[in-house]
Amino acid sequence: MGDFFNLILVHPIINILVAIYSAFSFLHIPYALGFAIIGLTIVIRFILYPLTTSQLKASMKMQKVAPHLSKLKEKHKGDAKKIQEETMRLYKEHGINPAAGCLPVLIQMPIIWALYSVLQRIVDFKPGVVVTEVNKIVYFDFLKLNNAWDPSFFGLSLGAIPSKIMSFDKPFAVGSLILLVPILTGVFQFILSKMMIPAKNSVAVLEKDIEAKSKIDKKDAGDFASAFQTQSMFIFPIMIGFFSFGFPIGLSLYWNTFTVFGIIQQYKIAGLGGLSTWIKKK
Amino acid sequence: MKRILILVVNFYQAFVSAILKNILGINKMCRYSPTCSEYTKIAINQNSVFVGLKKSAIRILNCQPFFSF
Question: Is residue A225 within 8 angstroms of chain B, CB to CB?
């Protein structure tokens, strides 16, 4: 299984990464490896772009019809088949393509995971073995590395881990600036989560839904679970921040590029969403 | 057994689903209503574990572009 995953996803992605890296170092761009990680993430995000876009659009339209849908459910309570039929009719009326389904979403998961494991591996290579290890994976001779890459990025090693750099004895030392990495990661994630929540009028409906739902959930799931669900907008960014505190910087670099691309895409397709109320206030 | 499975689904709904949505930036991705996870809970409850799992597996597999209603 692991070999298969390597064969179809991890190794091709490493090849793309090495190609971008070679191009960057050929152009004498400083910190080529760091920028290659950013470049690779953007390339992958562009490949996934149509999938995500169609998903975002469908999700937006579905939110619009959500109130109609809950009315339908009231009306045909207990008659599951009728509800399903009416739902499909409603989707058709509003031009929601029910053909998409969740497959496009599921396709993205292994790719995101593969990127993660690629970078996990890349930043872990010791300088001595980089050349041999990479050259084993690379498909073409012209991609082969002649000497090891420089794993530093603006003075930091991409393999460095914030929680290890920071010394808790001296919290005000320069090294503590590394805390900015997990904080930024969390902030970007929060912006994206906030944007995902639809703005204004639709929020009223949704909040009611969420309230009603959390009441139901509380009965069978623990309080923490339901709180997690409704508050995931706040909890998830904090979680991600903690992760990036314990992960190599190269991975944070990937994740932040990924998130920022997501923010831009979300903005282009769905607008500011939940952020708009904050931005207008200013 | 039923209880354990339903607990697993509850866990998925509470944590995994929320995390996935945040990662992918998607709010609502279901073509079905109730959602597949909710349906699985009901199916397991009403039928035997095997029949319930089979039903939900069929439903999840049908959630793709090549299957229309």
Answer: yes
Question: Token pair for residue A144?
Answer: 């082969």
- What is the pTM for the complete model shown? 0.74
> What are A153-203's pLDDT values in tens digits?
777 777 777 777 666 666 666 666 777 888 888 888 888 888 877 655 444
Q: Tokens at residue A177, please?
A: 């600036």
The tens digit of pLDDT for each residue in A47-96 reads 888 878 877 777 777 777 777 777 777 777 777 677 777 777 777 777 66
Pairwise CB contact (< 8 Å): A56 & B26: yes
Q: Sort A255 into a burial class: Cβ within 10 Å, 0-12 / 13-18 / 19+.
A: buried
Which two three-digit tokens encode residue A247?
């992960």
β-bridge pairing A156-157 and A152-153:
antiparallel
| Among the partner residues A69, A99, A197, nearest to B65 by beta-carbon distance | A99
Nearest to A100 by CA among B56, B68, B24: B68
Residue A230 at interface with chain B, using a CB cutoff of 8 Å: no
The minimal CB distance from A229 to the residues B14, B23, B32 is found for: B14
Yes or no: say if A13 and A40 are a contact pair by the CB < 8 Å rule.
yes
Nearest to A221 by CA among B25, B38, B47, B44: B38
Chain A residue with Cα closest to B22:
A193
Q: In this predicted complex, what is the ipTM?
A: 0.71
Q: Report DSSP letters for A171-225, one per residue.
A: TTSGGGGGGHHHHHHHHHHHHHHHHHSPPHHHHHHHHHHHHHHHHHHHHHS-HHH
Residue A22 forms contact with B (CB below 8 Å): no
- The two tokens of residue A186 are 């969390």
Which residues of chain B make contact with A98, given a CB cutoff of 8 A? 31, 68-69
